[in-house]
Every structure is written in C-alpha cells, then in structure tokens.
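dude i think i finally got it to work??
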Amino acid sequence: MAGPAATGDAPTLGVGMLGYAFMGKAHANALKKLPYMMYPPVAIPHLAAIAGRNENAVKEAAKRYGFAKAYTDWRQLIDDPAVQVFDNAGPNNLHTEPNIAAAKAGKHVFSEKPLGRNAAECMEMWNAVKSAGVKHQVAFNYRFVPAVRLVKNLIDSGKLGRIYHFRAAYLQEWIADVNFPMVWRLYGDVAGSGALGDLGSHVIDLARYLVGEPKSLMANVQTFIKERKDENGKLQPVTVDDAFQSMLEFENGAAGTIEASRFCLGRKNHNSFEINAEHGSVRFCLEQMNELEVHWRSGDQATQGFTKVLVTESHHPFWSNWWPHGHIIGWEHTFVHEFAHFFDAIVNNKPVQPHAADFEDGYRNAVICDAIIKSAGTRRQVDIEY
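look at this
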C-alpha cells in the first residue's frame, strides 16, 4: 500500500521504524540513500516516525536520521496513518508482538533477524502476515552482497554442477574479553540465543539460500563465560550460547559444516563460506566482500588453484547502480539493496522470495536453530521438521 504522495513516477511509502541503535542507524542510512542510488527508485521512502523507549534518545535519533515524528510507544507508531511500512530494528524480544500488531493494522513488515526467539514465535508472525495479506521480509542482508548473489547465479545456472560440500563460519571477537559487561544479547529471555541467533542465523540462511534445505544435523553449543557484571557491577548469569558447531546433511545429499562464535580473537566480522561442487569451488569472506575466489575443474592443469575475482563489474549483481569497476562498496550497501527489493515487492505486488527471505524463511531458520539447541542438549542427531 503506497502513500498518497509521489515523486515523479515513484510512489511514496511512509516508513515507521522501531529502534534507533546499531540496526536503526544501518536502516536509516539505507532508506535515505535508496532514492538517488537505486535510480530510478521503485518508491520514495518517507521517514514518517521512529519509536524507542528512551524519550531523549529517540528524539535525538529522529533529529539525526530525519524522521518526522518520535514515539516512546511502538503502538502509537503502528497506529500512525502516515506509516505504511513497519521497519522493526528492535531487540529480539520486541519482534513478535509489534510485528503481529503491524500486520493486523495492514502495514507491510520488514523485520530484523532472527525473526523470533524460537520457531513458535516465528510461526505466530508468519501466520499473522499471511492472514493480513501484507508483504513481509526478514533482514538477512548477506543475500544482497554482489559476490554472494553471483554465487547464487552460478549455482542456479548449473555451472557449478552438483554441490558436495558447504562449509561456513561466522566468527567475531567482540565479547571475548572476560570483563565485557552484560548487554541485552546475553540474556536468553531477550535475545533467545547467543552466537546462534545473532551470527549463526545468517549462516543458516545462506546455507538454505545457496544449497537447499538441511534434513538432519548434529550440534554442540558452548557458553565459555558463565557470569558477567551488569551496569550496576552485579554478576548476572549469561543465559545464551557463546559458540556453536554443527554438521548438516542436506536433502540434495550435500554435506555441510557451520559454526559461529563471538570468542575468536582477531576475527572482526568473519562471515565466510566455501562450496565444493562437481565442476568447481567458490570461496567468500565478508571481510573482503567485493572479492570471490573461484576454482574451475576445466582450468589449465599447470596453474590450478583458486583465482580471485573482483566483483565490481557493471554486469555483476547490483553494480549498475554504483561506481565504475574496482570502486568497491561496503557492508552498509546491502541494506540499500534489500530495502529496494522489499519496496519493489510492495509497489509491484511481487513475491519477496526467492532472493530475499520472507517470514516463512524466518520460521524455517528458527526451526534449524531450535534443532541445533536440541541436538546439543541430547547429544544426538536431530531431523529437521517444519
């Protein structure tokens, strides 16, 4: 549902955003950049309202990012008639109720990942958006990295052939310090899980997007630091995982290993994967996100090995809107791509799948996360059942 105002041929969509911290900044940056970079735009986002609990902070965020209104109650934001798109950039425990309320109010819903703290919450949200008939997308933004989309194209074209292995890891170091304080991501009732939902959900999404559905898994989950000090200096129990490792069996016969950890010194945002297939292999790491390493079986035998490809050519995915080849883009541009995709789905009534994740994908992702926790707890192989 587009708003009444329009710029040229592009309708205006009023966006109401919940949250103003890390993800709020990333989303606001993308919304402001989209109209003049993804040109001609499919829609013009109007930053109608922003909501957050702290009145001074949310007013400052509205001023900084350019939102017309600021609310301390997300319900008022959803009730605002200027809002057609609800953008949920809040913490995980503020996904289910606001997303469902927005859908019932007829708002299209764009939600940060993980969609919910468990599969049951995700199923509630998926049912709500289906019943309301609104568009819905989960912010698995790494689908919108040009090099990742190029890999998807190679797979879909059949050039790689049958996939044998998917091997992926998402590694960071940001809580490896034993003196790092408690934050919301370390409380299970708020976050749902730790490295699993925060980082692992991205890896799981890429596994499903690139390779297909896993049918079973075995996993191990660990919490290295059991207690941390809160803002008052009082020790609180850490109720989420610090790291996990899992072996997957895919429905198409491929074998997979995935892991995530926030205890890897030297790793800043090391989201990497390698695919070994019938006709070649590809290797990607987000810390060099404009590059893709490729090896083809048919290459010259005297110079066999991985070749580094700079994914910045005008014919590469998404690049027609950016710079001349070799002039790289960054992490923040993936959000521009995913919002442009979502607005196209709204304005032109297109499906969000297959290149973006919708709430069904968010639910399936959560089922796999739950299976990892179950396998770790029972120390047994678990079948994936949707």
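Residues 222 and 243 are 5 Å apart (CA to CA).
im so relieved honestly
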